[in-house]
Design goal:
263 residues, 60s Ribosomal Protein L30, Chain: A, 2 domains
Length: 263
């Protein structure tokens, strides 16, 4: 009987040892099988590949997709400013493309022939100052710098009913920077609460990047009663107070030169 008990105990020990050895092995095999089944169920679908230009192929057109159309156009964003004491909220309303700009004789702008008066002009230069070893950076945006420059010699706006703020710059002129500049401009001018304020932002590749000019003009309601409807070309735009300047020259855009082409 004792021998049978010893034999049973020996067999039990052998079984336990075998199970302890083969159990993790079986579990590992099951995991590997599960992983194998998982990976075989996934697939990668070929989407596309970027290829270089083939020999004798038509060169890539960098102006496709409306790029050339935008580069060749004078682009204008116009809007209005809702304001009250201590608050000014510019809102863009319209984007137009023009085939060209029209130069305006300075005698019309400065000689009293125009229906508006010049409130102020300014020129701004964009500047990013290298902080060097410090963590402080100094960034000057051209539209805001133009406002700063214009405020140095700004006249009163108490005698006008309409105020038009005209910004001009190169291809890097950005509407959000213009809106920020318009807000600061209106807050710093002595505008009446009921003054109608609008703004124009015009950019063209012929003007240098990193530079913005500002010309603010004021008009009375009776002077703009016709709203330019009985005028054509540059005269109609000037009657609405739309005039820009750069390097001693004055410009505007005409309705007849609006480019409605689609890329």
């Amino acid at each position: 009987m004792r021998q049978k008990i010893k034999l049973l105990l020996l067999l039990s020990s052998l079984f336990t040892a075998t199970l302890a050895f083969t159990g993790p092995l079986l579990l590992l095999q099951q995991q590997q099988r599960s992983q194998h089944q998982f990976t075989t169920k996934t697939s990668t679908r070929f989407m596309s590949v970027i290829r270089g230009e083939e020999e004798n192929a038509t060169p890539f057109d960098a102006g496709a997709g409306g790029v050339r159309l935008a580069q060749q156009s004078a682009i204008k964003v116009s809007g209005e400013v809702k304001h009250k004491p201590g608050s000014a909220n510019p809102k863009p309303l319209e984007l137009l493309r023009y085939t060209k700009l029209q130069q305006v004789d300075e005698r019309i702008v400065l000689g009293g022939e125009a229906t508006f008066k010049i409130v102020c002009t300014g020129r701004g230069i964009e500047n990013f100052k290298d902080p060097g070893d410090t963590t402080e950076k100094e960034v000057t945006l051209a539209p805001l710098d133009a406002v700063r420059d214009a405020m140095i010699s700004a006249g009163t706006t108490q005698d006008v009913d309409i105020l038009v703020c005209n910004f001009l710059g190169g291809d890097d002129l950005m509407i959000m920077e213009i809106m920020n500049a318009v807000e600061q401009l209106v807050l710093n001018l002595d505008v009446k609460t009921n003054t109608k304020i609008s703004f124009n932002s015009l950019c063209h590749t012929s003007f240098p990047m990193g530079e913005t000019t500002l010309m603010v003009v004021g008009m009375n309601d009776n002077a703009s009663s016709s709203d330019g409807n009985d005028l054509r070309g540059a005269q109609a735009s000037l009657a609405k107070g739309e005039v820009y300047f750069h390097d001693g020259n004055y410009y505007t855009v005409a309705k007849e030169d609006i480019d409605s082409a689609v890329a």
